[in-house]
């Protein structure tokens, strides 16, 4: 687990859970 910005820039994984960030 970590940052999937490389695979999906729209989806960002955080410790809180699944957060959708457009900024990446």
Give the spatial strand order of the biggest sheet. Answer: 1-2
Shape: flat
Distance between the termini: 16 Å
Percent of residues in helical segments? Answer: under 10%
Flag low-confidence runs. none
Order of helices and strands: EE
What is the count of DSSP helices, taking H or I runs of 4+ residues?
A: 0
Arithmetic mean pLDDT: 58
* Helix/strand structural class: mainly beta
Query: What's the β-strand tally?
Result: 2
Largest sheet: 2 strands, antiparallel
Q: Report the C-alpha radius of gyration, rounded.
A: 8 Å
- Strand coverage percent: 25-35%
Can you describe this structure?
The chain has strands at residues 11-14, 17-20. The chain has 24 residues and is mainly beta. Strands 1-2 form a two-stranded antiparallel ribbon. It is flat. The N and C termini lie far apart (16 Å).
Topology:
Elements: E1 11-14, E2 17-20
Antiparallel strand pairs: 1-2
In summary, what is this structure?
This protein has no helices and two strands. With 24 residues, it is an all-beta fold.
Question: What are the salient characteristics of this protein?
Answer:
24 residues
